[in-house]
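Most newcomers find our protein records easier to grasp once they have seen one. Sequence and backbone structure share a record, each on its own labelled line. Nothing more is needed to start thinking about how sequence determines fold. As an example, a complete record with its sequence and its structure tokens follows.
=====
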Amino acid sequence: MKLVAKVFLRGMAAILPVALTAYLVFWVVATAELALRNLVLQFVPPERYWTGMGVLASLALVLLVGVLMYSFVVRRLYVVVTRLLERIPIVKSVYGMVVDVVRVFGSAEQRPFRRVVLVRLPEGLEQIGFLTRDDFADLPEIGADKVAVYLPMSYQLGGFTMIVPRSAVRELSMPVDVALRFCITAGVARHEPTASAPAAGKAGGMPAPVP
């Protein structure tokens, strides 16, 4: 029975990630298809509609919005709408959370986490975090030569922000997605370094402190 249980758990560990990923992709595609189906039927006769038009319409709509965001008028209208959402008591919390998640996985210019750092804590402890601010020129009361670092928690969507001396932070050459996966899985996730990445601990391979 122990052997059967071991084999079963090993099979579950192999199947679950693939199955959950496939289900998530299917859910996103099905939701886009269902949401845009009625819109497509306004322009296409029902007999000419085929499954997938809703997904294509959603992709086209996203591209259209991206193009319109280059317009000054649309950007001003977007700012007005978002400021309105940020003033509604319950809606602003949900909206802020969604914005933060999108920024993490969005374009490089919008990502709040672009630099992975190793923070030196008391008693010789160290923790991987993400540099969110490298100066406080607008908040001089915090003090000079301080940086803000976000430290994510393991196995949950959450974390906390610490303000630490710049000398206590050392930048790593680890990609942001790899660092996020490492922190969320409590270090279980492993990353194979590329040939160009210097090995930690070797001469010339130790990143310098945050400038």
In short: Confidence is low (pLDDT under 50) at residues 196-207. Residues 2-41 form the longest helix (40 residues). The beta strands are 116-120, 126-133, 146-152, 159-165, 169-171.
